[in-house]
Amino acid sequence: MLKSKNVNSLLLSGKKNKMFLFEDIDWSKDLDKKLLLDDLIGDIVNNDKEVKDKDQLSYFTTHEYFKKNQDGKGRLKDLSTDILFQIINLTKDVEETEEIHKDNVEEFKDRFDTVIKKYSKFEDRISNIGATTTKIGRQLENIHKLKLRSTSAIELIKYFLHFREKQKKPSTPLFVSDRHLVERANVLIKLNNIAKELKGEKNIIATKSIQKSISELQKTMLSAFEDASFSQDHEEMKKYLEILLLFNDGGKCIKTFIRSRKTLFKEIKTDQANESNFKGKTKKKKKTIKKILNPNESSSRTLLNEQKGNEDFKLNFRSTQLDNFLIQLIEKIKEDYELVNKVFSNPVRVMSMLIEMSFEFIKVNVNESLKQQKLNEKRKPISINKNGKNQTNRTQSLEEIYLKTLYESYLSVLKFEKTLNYLKLGELNIYELIEKIFKSYKSDYLKTEKDTLNTRFSEMLPKKFYLYLDYKKTNFKKFQKDPNFQKIEYPTLDTSLQFIYITESAIERAILLSTKENLGDNIRNIAECLNTFLGESYLMYFIDVVFQKIKVQKKIYKRAKKKEPTFEFLTIIQKTNHIILKFEEFFLVTVLPILTEFTNSFSTIKHKKRELLTSIENKLSLGLQNLLENSVKYFQYLLKNQKKIDFEPKKKDNNIINITAACKKAVEFLIKVTKNIIKTVDGQNLKIFFSVFGNQIADILLNHYAKFKFNSSGALQLLQDLSAFIKITRKFKIPQVDEKFVTLREISNIFLVPPKNLNNLKQQSRLNELEFKRFIKCRSDYKSKMIGEKI
Q1: Nearest-CA neighbor of 542 among 613, 464, 482, 457?
Q2: pLDDT tens, residue by residue, 439-495
Q3: What angle do CA 151, 154, 156 make, to 5 degrees?
Q4: Cys bridge to 234: 222, 342, 456, 710, which one at CB 3.0-4.6 A?
């Protein structure tokens, strides 16, 4: 059996085939020489009878073996020659086959080019046939159209003849059935156009009949369109609108739609507020002075922008008749907006007309609301306590109710306008519609506001204010004796804040209800009312009343009547300072920022405020000066109770620890003055008061002690009294006064040292020479020891 795998088992050996056949080998494949030799040797071994054992295989590989087998070698040579010839023949066959193949390829290429050319010609013929077919189709279509037109014209002539002869519409399904409304409208329009071109009496009759049918159809369609508008059936509305547009009745459709909305708007009930529609409603909190309206916003539109709202109609309306109407109106407009966009091709125009019509109803409601407030004779009880909350201890005037209603109505309508911002309304200016409603009310607003403020502020002044004015104009001496003014009263911060809160509300209304041109003047006028009533009337009244009592005390001291001065004026200073602080804060935060754009109003109100504050400050300074003079005189009076024996006791005592009775009373008075002054006066006024008061006290004490004689015990007593005074005056915190009292304290040394040491003391003393010599004479031993000759 052959071992070579690439021979593919074609080399056969053994008993069946005793000869090795090279013809059976597949020469197209590569043969392994070694394997081929092994196969060849195996065949020889199988044919050799002498070989019986595989161990003798080496014998056949020797030279002797090949010599003995010359026949096998010859066969191999012949076989090689045959193979060579076969290869040559095969090569020739391949070359001939390639030549034939090339010829076939060239022939096929020529045939293919011929086919392509024939196909192009065929395609051109098909295109020509298609174009011809299209032309034929168009001609057939035109013929069909001409046929239809002819048929339609014949039908139109028949209908026209019917209208001319019978003067009524035909009874065909086209003119009877509602399924053919569009076709009927087209036929009537064409018939009407034909009739207009023809002349003659019969044709005129036909024209009238046709126009009558058109009018009936229009009325029917408009009525059906209106019914569909009420039911909000947008598909029906759109169907009838398309028919009416054939008659150019789009404008009538819009008017019909607006008329249907007008009917629905009239049905809105405003007698009871629907609380379910008040979404997100919250109570309005009273604004503090610092959190009043943004002063940089100078128009009602910017004020409204601070209010939170959105397209979902969740604005905060109050439960009033107008607000309830606006809430329901918003809901209806929202529904109509969706309907209009589905039906009309120009929804902007339709919505603009709808909004304009809705403002007619808003105007009616606003007028009724404000007219009702004007005619209403009932007054609502109202008051404002220190927290700015309402109480029921005064009656609200009709003007106050009217202004409040006007403000809330205007604000509600602006909120309504804000809900419409998402609508595309073209050139429609909703704000102009609002201004038309409130134009007449805004024109006389300021007069009503000023009258209301004057009335309200006049009620807040003390009852005795006008009696005080009468005394001031006629005879002020009677005022001092009037028992009504004997009890001291003070201005309260609560009442002052009421003035400010009321003014704040007025400014809030002015911002909303004023135009940009007159806003500055309106704010200035309102601020001047506050300036007049709170400053010139309310504060100045209390200041003047207490000031007159100080003047009376001053006259009493001139008549040598001994009475301790009262400190009511210090209380009035303290309370006035607190009120002025709030007053200034209100102007700084609220009034002046608004008026920065209005130069004239800004400078005017600033000047008037400065004049008021200067007047109040001058009055307080004058009163404080009178109080200081009275206090100094009373202090001087208390020192008159000093006894000579206080400083020249007969019994010598070196352990003096108490102050004299006169000093004790004087110190108690100084403590009272100091506490009250520090409590009520501050800043530069405090420094000035203590500086003047301390220097005058020091001068008084200097002159006071120069009237007495002092021995050694008296000197110690003097030292105790002066220490008590120094302890108080140090609280003044005035260096000049402190230095003066330290100098004053050295007086006691003049009476303590022996006479021989006086010259040394004189050189070290802060007292000038005249003062030093003056107090040397106050020594009890001045004459006995002839001290004057030694100094």
Answers
A1: 464
A2: 888 888 899 999 999 999 999 998 888 877 777 776 666 666 666 666 778 899 999
A3: 110
A4: 342
b/e 384-407 (16+ beta carbons within 10 angstroms → b)? beeebeeeeeeebbbbbbbbbbbb
Distance between first and last Cα of the chain: 171
253 neighbors 350 (Cβ within 8 angstroms): no
State the Cα–Cα distance between residues 556 and 567, nearest whole angstrom: 16
Q: Give the integer Cα–Cα distance in Å for 335 and 343.
A: 13
Distances (CA, A) of 27 to 22, 40, 551: 9, 16, 154
Task: For the chain, give the number of residues.
Answer: 791
Written in H, E and C, the secondary structure of 89-108 is HHHHHHHHHHHHHHHHHHHH
650, 712 in Cβ contact below 8 A? no
Q: What is the pLDDT of residues 533-557, one digit of tens each?
A: 999 999 998 888 888 777 655 555 5
**Strand (E) positions, 407-520?**
none
| Residue carrying the six token digits 């209106």 | 226
Residue with tokens 């090795």: 20
DSSP code at position 429: -
Instruction: Report the amino acid identity of residue 362.
Output: I
Contacts of 97 (CB under 8 A, 6+ apart): none
Token representation of residue 580: 């002025």
Q: Which two tokens stand for residue 231?
A: 């039911």
Q: Is 48 helix (H, G, I), strand (E, B) or coil?
A: coil
Q: How far apart are CA 398 and CA 413, in angstroms?
A: 22
Q: How far apart are CA 788 and CA 791, in angstroms?
A: 6
